[in-house]
């Protein structure tokens, strides 16, 4: 149970940091795509960041994005190569395993970079701000659980989650 909770927490952190990195990237280009700039701004307001904290966090996120970009591009290419290798007439198990192992290593390296960025950001925050970040993480986990439950309900009820008003069998 603890292992699962740790993985969920790590996943949420990676998602939150990824969204923040994307937000800073959009902000820097003066084209906030998909509201990322607004999300960062709402986060800054919610955490009551000082201008110095905001500048430092943006710099940390920019550096993390710069560091992660080559890994992301490489992983994208490797996934495409791996898919092509898998779906050939005669898949080469050794080559597939080699590329799968390489993809695992790159993913591990990218997670390490996100953890490093998170720790740098953590160092900028006050104790009260860290408590608020914990609340945000919990809220995101709850939202993800509600979305999973809705998807599961949709899968079990293909009519869009609503019960059919037509009976399965006619009344006699």
For the structure shown, list the relevant keywords:
5 helices; 0% strand; 172 residues; mainly alpha; single chain; 80% helix
Kindly describe this structure.
With 172 residues, the chain is an all-alpha fold. The chain has one domain (2-143). It has five helices and no strands. The longest helix is centred in the middle third of the chain and has 36 residues, at 51-86. The chain is extended. The protein starts with a helix and ends in a 16-residue tail after the last helix.
Structurally, the number of domains stands at 1
Q: Between the first and last Cα atoms, what is the distance in angstroms?
A: 51 Å
Largest sheet: none
Unreliable spans are: none
- Measured by DSSP, the beta-strand proportion falls in under 5%
User: In which range does the helix fraction lie?
Assistant: over 70%
Q: Could you give a quick summary of the protein structure above?
A:
With 172 residues, this protein is mostly helical. The protein has helices spanning 2-28, 36-47, 51-86, 93-124, 127-156.
Helices and strands in order, then pairings?
Layout: H1 2-28, H2 36-47, H3 51-86, H4 93-124, H5 127-156
Helix pairs in contact: 1-2, 1-3, 1-4, 3-4
